[in-house]
């Protein structure tokens, strides 16, 4: 016995209309459907740069939303056809437009209980209105007398709004949302959008990515070209996202990393921004998500994966350059700090040296180990080496002013060198080490302590200054016992941290 063919049909039209209209999870997505209809009207009419107005009235006894365009308008017959063909879109095969499912008009049910489409057709003095109400299977078509349009075009009024809608759809939130969703079309100048609430009107401007523009050529596929407009910026705490743009310049999803295939790697580093345009991609009904079909979507994933190594390489290079620039800048700050510290220490007896050692002039000035007490300076004691001898002079040594008579800093004793900092090319397990031949403090970029502070410049500056202080003290006190070395370290850090800038 052959299988029976059963024709599917909608058994409860009112329920189908209600459920379909509630498919939009975010009220902003539902509002965007009416912005899409206005944008499609301009695309079909070939009008570039025309304005779409979104009006928000959240206060008063009868709050409403309105989306207005200056397109060709709709005749009574066209309005009647819209009500009778909710699932047969006339725009389904038009590549310039977004409409294809013919359910966008039902999105009003996510916002409120009533939708009035008020329109005046070109070459007609009459304004007509089509009224739909939530849950009703019939619509009312009548000549509009109260909200007569002075020029051709269409205004969609959404009223009987739900309380949550009034809370979510503020002017600021709508502007930010449309900037993300409509950024590609706005940047091309396809149309403009203005959001009005009360006396405040704001034009939605396209988001301008920052950073280095990647030179990635468009990739041809059997389903059309995939175009890349990607920018890589240094990590600075700012959220950056790569949008996926489909037909008519409308963003399908705001963040590529929302897709499981791209949830890691360079796309989730907050360093990559821009958009990927593939008009063959489709948006799933009712929410911002890519339709995972068996044709265009796999091609999209494969193509984006092919450019991923180049993006990752640029992200890594930019991060390295920023780390190097930050290190250079903080190194200069450390040098200025230590110039002040060494100047303070120059007024102390035997600066930068502690009374620890096993013979006069080595590691510190002391009697020999059999003296039983600290050494008192004598006229024939050897002069301790100047700081400049302990740390070879850099290319820009700080010249000390000539000391006054009687100062603890005799004339000619100081041309003190300042420390220089650099990443350790051959790090060990230590946080830092001192390269005596170049007078450089090398710090370990892979040490857990460095990684812990590297994203905060104040913390990183304190860390690097601490490493330099450590290397100064250890180098100048080779024979110090633990207690004496710790005391000298504290003495140095107290002076260093007094001079660390509070703001960078």
Mean pLDDT: 78
Assign a percent range to the helix content.
25-40%
Shape: elongated
**Top CATH class of the largest domain:** Alpha Beta
| Total separate domains | 3
The number of strands is 17
Radius of gyration: 36 Å
Named at the architecture level, the CATH assignment of the largest domain is: 2-Layer Sandwich
Strand order of the largest sheet: 5-4-3-6-2-1-7-8
Q: State the CATH superfamily name of the largest domain.
A: Histidine kinase-like ATPase, C-terminal domain
Q: What is the makeup of the main sheet?
A: 8 strands, mixed
CATH fold type of the largest domain: Heat Shock Protein 90
Number of contiguous helices: 10
Report the uncertain regions. Answer: 349-379, 381-416
Beta content: 15-25%
Describe the protein in words.
With about 500 residues, the protein is an alpha+beta fold. The chain has three domains: about 190 residues, Heat Shock Protein 90 (2-Layer Sandwich), CATH 3.30.565; about 100 residues, no CATH class; about 150 residues, no CATH class. Helix content is about 30%, strand content about 20%. It is built from ten helices and 17 strands. The strands form three sheets. The protein has an eight-stranded mixed beta sheet with strand order 5-4-3-6-2-1-7-8. A hairpin with a 2-residue loop joins strand 10 and strand 11. About 15% of the residues have low confidence.
């Amino acid at each position: 016995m052959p299988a029976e063919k059963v024709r599917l049909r909608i058994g409860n039209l009112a329920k189908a209309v209600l459920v379909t209209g509630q498919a939009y999870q975010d009220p902003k997505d539902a509002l965007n459907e009416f912005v899409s209809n206005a944008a499609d009207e301009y695309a079909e009419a070939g009008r570039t740069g025309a304005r779409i107005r979104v009006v928000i009235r959240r206060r008063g006894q009868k709050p409403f939303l309105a989306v207005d365009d200056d397109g060709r308008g709709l005749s009574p017959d066209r309005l009647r056809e819209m009500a009778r063909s909710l699932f047969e879109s006339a725009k389904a095969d038009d590549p310039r437009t977004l409409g294809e499912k013919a359910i966008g008009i039902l999105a009003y049910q996510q916002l409120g209980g009533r939708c009035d489409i008020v329109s005046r057709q070109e070459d007609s003095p009459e304004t007509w209105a089509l009224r739909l109400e939530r849950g009703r299977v019939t619509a009312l078509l009548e000549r509009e007398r109260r909200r007569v349009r002075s020029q051709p075009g269409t205004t969609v009024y959404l009223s009987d709004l739900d309380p949550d809608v009034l809370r979510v759809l503020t002017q600021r939130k709508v502007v930010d949302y449309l900037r993300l969703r409509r950024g590609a079309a706005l940047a091309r100048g396809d149309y403009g959008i203005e959001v009005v609430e009360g006396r405040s009107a704001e034009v939605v401007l396209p988001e301008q990515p920052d950073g280095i523009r990647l030179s990635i050529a468009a990739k041809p596929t059997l389903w059309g070209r995939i175009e890349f407009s990607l920018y890589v910026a240094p990590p600075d705490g700012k959220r950056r996202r790569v949008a996926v743009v489909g037909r008519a310049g409308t963003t399908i999803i705001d963040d590529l990393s929302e897709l499981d295939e791209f949830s890691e790697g360079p796309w989730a580093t907050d360093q990559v921004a821009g958009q990927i345009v593939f008009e063959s991609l489709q948006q799933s009904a009712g929410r911002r998500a890519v339709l995972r079909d068996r044709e265009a979507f796999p091609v999209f994933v494969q193509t984006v994966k092919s450019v991923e190594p180049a993006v990752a390489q640029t992200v890594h290079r930019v991060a390295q350059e920023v780390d190097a620039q930050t290190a250079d800048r903080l190194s200069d700050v450390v040098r200025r700090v230590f110039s002040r510290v060494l100047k303070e220490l120059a007024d102390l007896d035997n600066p930068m040296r502690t009374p620890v050692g096993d013979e006069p002039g080595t590691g510190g000035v002391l009697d020999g180990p059999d003296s039983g007490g600290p050494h008192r300076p004598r006229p024939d004691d050897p002069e301790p080496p100047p700081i400049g001898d302990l740390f070879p002079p850099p290319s820009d040594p700080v010249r000390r002013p000539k000391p006054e008579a009687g100062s603890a800093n005799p004339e000619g004793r100081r041309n003190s060198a300042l420390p220089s900092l650099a990443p350790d090319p051959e790090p060990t397990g230590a946080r830092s080490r001192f390269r005596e031949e170049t007078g450089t403090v090398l710090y370990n970029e892979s040490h857990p302590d460095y990684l812990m502070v590297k994203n905060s410049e104040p913390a990183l500056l304190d860390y690097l200054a601490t490493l330099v202080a450590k290397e100064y003290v250890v180098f100048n006190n080779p024979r110090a016992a633990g207690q004496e070395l710790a005391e000298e370290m504290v003495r140095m850090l107290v002076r260093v941290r007094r001079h660390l800038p509070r703001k960078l």
